[in-house]
Design a protein that fits this description.
alpha/beta, Rossmann fold, NAD(P)-dependent_oxidoreduct, NAD(P)-bd_dom_sf, Epimerase_deHydtase, 275 residues, 7-stranded parallel β-sheet, globular
Length: 275
């Protein structure tokens, strides 16, 4: 794709990922449009007022698009109906608009490595049977299926724990770890915002067309260490670790396609003040 020519529509532009991805795309010369409802977007981005639940606005939004980066989602909410409506129905509405108005578009969908079975016998792989435990990953699985069966040119990027660029996500981790009573030795795959951009560029170039791909850095890190990095002490334990591969994603496919994270570990991010 010529980065100087071609409309890229981004949903979820003001969210954790979108607000950090868009400035990088603009800086690199991509022509970015953001589907928003009365919110400000980064400089250099064209606003398209619209709503995933309003099909009429979606048809106007996708008109002339060469690529769509679908980031919009509801994650942590006690309202499971809202999660399903946003993540599944919203995606379906967008897919239908694309099929009608811009069927040749490249549709890039952000999903999650939370889709893998908690009892997996190895790090989660793209061809594993899926058994998501909660509404968010379950709705993402349903949306992935909708996209794969759409007949469009699609790619699915499954991201693990996202952090960096001052997003505060890592700083919020301790409260969730404590609430879930996780074992301190549990290792979790991570990805920095800078390398979400790396993966998105690969997808825009067509390298990931027709694939579901895990995107992670090079070093799944224990929760004990992650909490230490943000100044929190986690209760130590030498008890056996159940579900040792939970939240750990296998990135072999991404590596085989040429993905190389520039922020290889969370420790590198800390050393270079990228957290």
């Amino acid at each position: 794709m010529d980065r100087q020519v071609g409309k890229i529509l981004v949903t979820g532009a003001t969210g954790l990922v979108g607000s950090r991805l868009l400035p990088r795309l603009v800086e690199d010369g991509y022509d970015c449009f953001a589907l928003v409802r009365g919110k400000e977007v980064p400089a250099g981005v064209t606003v398209i007022e619209g709503d995933l639940f309003d099909p009429a606005t979606l048809q106007e939004a996708v008109k002339d698009a060469k690529a769509i980066i679908h980031l919009a989602a509801v994650f942590r909410s006690p309202d499971t109906d809202l999660i399903w409506k946003s993540n599944m129905e919203g995606t379906r509405n967008l897919i239908n608009a694309v099929k009608t108005i811009a069927p040749d578009v490249r549709f890039i969908f952000a999903s999650t490595s939370h889709v893998y079975d908690k009892n997996n016998p190895h790090p989660g792989r793209e061809d594993d049977a899926l058994n998501p435990q909660h509404a968010y990953p379950a709705s993402k699985v349903a949306a992935e299926k909708e996209l794969r069966e759409s007949g469009l040119n699609w790619s699915v990027l499954r991201f693990p724990f996202v952090y960096g660029d001052g997003d505060g996500h890592l700083e919020e981790l301790p409260k969730h770890v404590v609430a879930a009573k996780f074992h301190p030795a549990m290792r979790m795959s991570t990805i920095h915002h800078r390398d979400i951009y790396t993966a998105i560029i690969m997808a825009l170039q067509g390298i990931i067309d027709g694939r579901v791909v895990n995107i992670t850095d090079e070093a799944p890190t224990t929760l004990y260490e992650l909490l230490q990095l943000v100044g929190e002490n986690m209760t130590a334990s030498a008890e056996p670790l159940a579900n040792p591969w939970y939240l750990h994603a296998d990135a072999s496919l991404a590596r085989s396609l040429g993905f190389q994270p520039s922020v290889r570990t969370v420790y590198q991010a800390a050393q270079e003040n990228l957290i």
